[in-house]
């Protein structure tokens, strides 16, 4: 089962948003088309019946299409069908205008860009087919007239359609892109943060590790890596339960967030192991920072036990001594191993003499 696929209610909400957006665009489009088409129909003396039909298409059809899509089992598919019907109606009006060039081309441009924005190439092709079928049919039945003259009034009445509609379409498309970008950023944040601890996860940590390593290599900073491992954490779980273990990890993470420098990055390295990338430090200052963290962590208490004392082992390595990120990580691990080996609850800075310790 794919746990990440959207559920039915989510899909329904998304469909309804699409239908509402299309309703607004359709209302605006048909209203702006109404005036230039009416102008041409009047110039060609098409009679009241066509004007009435145009009125229905411009002002009633958007409501009918909206209700039809909203009530449908599959709103998105019905709305796509509505979009194709719009194109067919467009073809009918272009035929009845005897291809009057200005309104016809503006209507075709609006239909094409709108269909493409709503449903990509598939929607555009379906719309073009519907447009051409309706156009050819009505045009032939209507006597295949071609009237290339148009009045100044028709020109003026076509301008709002050519300008306003395109502007609204661009704004709508931009807003959608912006929302998508915002959602992507949120998804990326979720993918790179540890949900329980509110600090970066190992994936983000490794990315930052790389940029810190390169920055140290360039001489822009002096990066250090702290690997922090909780001592006897298994016994915390065994004695006070997994929830107490989670609580402890969360307390220590929030403590790291609050006590490392603004440019330093705390993260969950995995399991009960945490890490901090220190952006710029010296051997003395980084050891002092690790000891301060150790003291703070020792003050953390479990709600279930006042006697409980927490201790951590911290291995430190400088990026300057490493040839690669892998080496840097290994050095920190070797330093941590040394602390564990020496009885835990300590801080150790990697030195070349420790190479191969772990
Ligand atoms: N509560 C809780 N426990 C976790 C989590 N992740 C890992 N653990 C537990 O952390 C324990 C780590 O155990 P070990 O690697 O043996 O380490 P330790 O008991 O701390 O022993 P030393 O590191 O040698 O001092 C395991 O029992 C894991 O189940 C977590 O997110 N929450």
TrEMBL record:
Record field: transmembrane: 23-42, 48-66, 87-112, 124-142, 154-176
Top-level division of the source organism's lineage: Bacteria
Keywords of this entry: Membrane, Transmembrane, Transmembrane helix
Catalytic activity: 2 GTP = 3',3'-c-di-GMP + 2 diphosphate
GGDEF domain span: 221-352
Protein EC: 2.7.7.65
The protein's name: diguanylate cyclase
């Amino acid at each position: 089962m794919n746990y990440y696929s959207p559920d039915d209610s989510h899909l329904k909400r998304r469909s309804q948003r699409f239908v509402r957006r299309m309703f607004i665009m359709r209302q605006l489009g048909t209203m702006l088309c109404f005036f230039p088409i009416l102008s041409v129909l009047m110039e060609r003396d098409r009679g009241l019946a066509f004007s009435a039909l145009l009125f229905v298409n411009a002002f009633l059809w958007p409501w009918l299409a909206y209700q039809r899509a909203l009530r449908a089992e599959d709103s998105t598919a019905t709305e796509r069908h509505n979009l194709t019907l719009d194109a067919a109606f467009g073809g009918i009006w272009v035929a009845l205008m005897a291809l009057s060039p200005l309104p016809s081309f503006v209507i075709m441009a609006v239909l094409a860009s709108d269909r493409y924005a709503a449903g990509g190439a598939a929607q555009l092709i379906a719309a073009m087919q519907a447009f051409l079928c309706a156009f050819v049919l009505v045009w032939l039945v209507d006597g295949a007239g071609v009237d290339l003259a148009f009045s100044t009034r028709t020109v003026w009445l076509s301008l709002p359609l050519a300008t306003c509609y395109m502007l609204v379409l661009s704004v709508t498309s931009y807003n959608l892109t912006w929302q998508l970008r915002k959602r992507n950023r949120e998804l990326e944040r979720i993918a790179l943060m540890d949900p329980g601890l509110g600090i970066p996860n190992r994936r983000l940590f490794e990315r930052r590790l790389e940029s810190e390593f390169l920055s140290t290599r360039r001489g822009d900073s002096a990066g250090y890596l702290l690997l922090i491992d909780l001592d006897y954490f298994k016994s915390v779980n065994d004695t006070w339960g997994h929830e107490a273990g989670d609580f402890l990890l969360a307390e220590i993470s929030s403590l790291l967030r609050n006590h490392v420098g603004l440019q330093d990055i705390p993260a969950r390295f995995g399991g009960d192991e945490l890490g901090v990338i220190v952006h710029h430090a010296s051997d003395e200052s980084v050891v002092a920072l690790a000891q301060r963290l150790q003291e703070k962590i020792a003050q953390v208490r479990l709600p279930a036990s006042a006697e409980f004392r927490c201790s951590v082992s911290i291995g430190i390595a400088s990026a300057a001594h490493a040839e690669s990120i892998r080496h840097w990580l290994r050095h920190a691990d070797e330093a941590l191993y040394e602390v564990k080996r020496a009885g835990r609850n300590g801080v150790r800075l990697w030195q070349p003499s420790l190479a191969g310790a772990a």
